[in-house]
Amino acid sequence: MKKMFAVKVEEGREGRDGLPSVGPVYRNLLAHHHFPPIDPHLSTAWEIFRASVEKYPGNRMLGWRPFLDHKKWGPYAWKTYEEVYGETLCAGSALRAQGIQPGARVGIYGSNCPQWIVAMEACSSQSLICVPLYDTLGPGAVDFIIDHADIDFVFVQDKKVKELLRCKHARRLRSMVCFTSMTEEEKDGAASVGLKSYSWNDFVRMGKENPSDLLPPQPFNICTIMYTSGTSGNPKGVILTHENISTCIRGVDIFMEQFEDKMTVNDVYISFLPLAHILDRMIEEYFFHKGASVGYYHGDISEIQDDLMELKPTFLAGVPRVFERVHEGVLKALEELNPVRRKIFGMLYNYKLNWMKRGYKQKHASPIADLLAFRKVKARLGGRIRLIVSGGAPLGSEVEEFLRVTSCAFVLQGYGLTETCGLTSLGFPDEMCLIGTVGSAFVYNEIRLEEVPEMGYYPLGDRPRGEICVRGKMAFAGYYKNPELTRETIRDGWFHTGDIGEMSENGVITIIDRKKNLIKLSQGEYVAVEYLEKVYCVSPTIEDIWVYGDSFKSMLIAVVVPHEENTVKWARQNGYQDSFSGLCSLNQLQDLILQELRSTAERNKLRGFEHIKAIILEPQPFELQADLMTPTLKKKRDQLLKRYKGEIEGLYEKLSGVKR
Question: Is 496 left (phi over 0), alpha (psi -120 to 50) or beta?
């Protein structure tokens, strides 16, 4: 009998009267009969922060690396909980001195840093609504949010001041505070649009000289309007209340109580995912709740290895692409070893994996393998990692297994959206049967699948599949100023995620598709392009792929970013000496990749209309090109279409035999 990870609390039912079929309702095992009670003394984000300040005043809270004169980043400097609280009170008082009233929206625009958190907590202290602006959204979306959210006041990183002032709606702003200080040119630019500007130190000083009483929020008050970048159209403003935030934190507490290893005040998190994204925001909120430490990367993701070695974090969270690069880095290092050492690594890997599959915890499965081989993998991550969490998109099974075996840490995969406060479901440590899944319903959620007839997904069959729907205490309050979208998304109390899942008999969910990335070809066939991209991306010469279909065409095409190292290796073996960019223009490379795509399609038994018929080779990764990816590295399909429109039209004309 399979081990259960969730409990069925309601049976499914067949569709009737035009309504779709729905699968059984599942809850977390810890919420079998009802959701656990919330702590009445920690019912808002502000109460949680303030309680931690009282309990852990001298603990290190926020860390950053000062830039040294000789073009190097220094060791981490720290502010304690007490110091951050004092600065927060001053910033909150300064906001009041500006005439800002409770319920007003305050923007925060910039990379992760201590000032970001102080600004966020200052909003909570005065019942203001924090509106994060994605650092990588670009001025178009930032301009939209300033206007849509009625923002009058904004905290901004020094590097983003010019971008902010270029926004059409910058004129509606009354004041802005720079995380550090501004140049005279930037001050003049702000003044020219009627905008008061302050350096960080001046603003904090203003609050110190004009102290105000706290105006703490109620649980039902809005904590944040978090705009999701999405993959098309304008961002959507997700309304999250203080109750949403505090419920999520309480849920993590309850979830963690099950396990032998506990989080302590000595744990350290390295923050590099955008703070404007729900995953990083909730992780930091939880670390603050536990009196632990958060250290910020210095801003260049390509040099994060240096930050890892300096900070030596115990907790690492990232999107799948981050962990794919860790995996690729280790495999590349293995290739440089002599054959004997490589073989020994493989033997130790299989030995430890075998014991883990038998039910042994990773730390007990093979201490000798950890000592001889895997401690070096752990060392690449700073040497102290205890927990790794992947979110934002499904993590490949091969990469997840590799991390579970070699990282010497707990590895969890979770699933969530901004609309569910970042946690819809969560896996369990040391459960190898959960590899490739996103675990079971989180503590304060209920989950069920709903039929998607146009895609052939049915939630009451032998393999229940359908759109994942969520209900519970962590679901958002709605989309800001968008009641139509709210009604479309929340039906009968259930939030419809747009993600397609498969539910196992023990309540475990696997993400298999995306409803919104469904396209219809000219013959009427529906194609799930995101699923196809996951299938095709396993080809050794493919680094990334964007699959495209036109509803007036019968064939799929794709833009492929070749895997540089494997492509160069193939080229040298076949006598080509061009640069990587030059290789991408070779017909021979196109033919090779098309053949690999055909083989992959046949191996995975894809239907004929799911085969890729033609490709465009792109040497530059999508994430390095402006506005083609969201901050969580999901493809912006409308932007990709704009970028490659001319080449796509040329490919289709070539396929149909029409000359230009």
Answer: beta
Residue 274 burial by Cβ neighbours in a 10 Å radius (0-12, 13-18, 19+): buried
What local confidence, expressed as pLDDT, does residue 659 receive? 40
pLDDT at residue 660 greater than cutoff 70: no
Do residues 48 and 285 make contact, with C-beta atoms less than 8 angstroms apart? yes
Separation of alpha carbons 37 and 444, rounded Å: 10
Distance (Å, rounded) from C-alpha 116 to C-alpha 226? 15
* Spatial distance between the Cα atoms of 451 and 15, rounded to a whole number of angstroms: 8
Q: Do 148 and 231 fall within a single domain? A: yes
- Is 340 part of any domain? no
- Between CA 660 and CA 487 the distance in angstroms is 46
By CB neighbour count within 10 A (0-12 exposed, 13-18 middle, 19+ buried), where does 234 fall? middle
- Asked whether 541 and 567 are in contact (CB, 8 A), the reply is yes
β-pairing, 196-198 vs 175-178, is: parallel
In angstroms, rounded to a whole number, what is the distance separating the alpha carbons of residues 214 and 128? Answer: 11
Number of compact structural domains in the chain: 3
Contact criterion met (CB below 8 Å) for 303 and 279: no
Query: Final residue of a domain: which of 241, 276, 306?
Result: 241
**413, 509 Cβ separation under 8 angstroms:** no
Start-to-end CA distance of the chain, whole Å, equals 63
Token representation of residue 634: 């999901």
User: In b/e form, how buried is each residue of 195-216, taking b as 16+ CB within 10 angstroms?
Assistant: bebbbbeebbebbeeeebeeeb
The three-state secondary structure class of 596 is helix
Q: Pairing relation of β-strands 222-228 and 236-241?
A: antiparallel
**Backbone phi, psi, residue 501, to 5°:** -125, 160
Q: Which helix (H) or strand (E) holds 175?
A: strand 175-178
Residue 556 lies in a domain: yes
Closest CA to 65 of 265, 271, 205: 271
Q: In whole angstroms, what separates CA 424 from the centre of its chain?
A: 13
Residue spans of alpha helices (H) in 336-396: 339-357, 362-365, 367-369, 375-380
Distance CA 537, CA 519 (A): 19
Decide if 348 is inside a domain. no
User: What average pLDDT does the chain have?
Assistant: 92
Among 192, 222, 241, which residue terminates a domain?
A: 241
Residue closest to 110 by CA, chosen among 161, 167, 66: 161
Q: What is the pLDDT of residues 280-308, one digit of tens each?
A: 999 999 999 999 999 999 988 888 999 99
Q: How far apart are CA 630 and CA 276, in angstroms?
A: 12
Q: Which residues contact 532 (CB under 8 A, 6 or more apart)?
A: 547, 556, 606, 610
Partners of 8 in beta bridges: 26
pTM for this predicted structure: 0.84
The model's pLDDT over 72-114, given as tens digits with 9 standing for 90+, comes to: 899 999 999 999 999 999 999 999 999 999 999 999 999 999 9
**Domain presence at residue 212:** yes
**Separation between Cα atoms, residue 242 and residue 248, nearest integer Å:** 10
What pLDDT is stored for residue 569 in this prediction? 92
**543-562 CB burial, b ≥16 within 10 A, e <16:** bbbbbbbbeebebbbbbbbb
**Who's near 234: CB < 8 A, 6+ residues apart?**
141, 144, 148
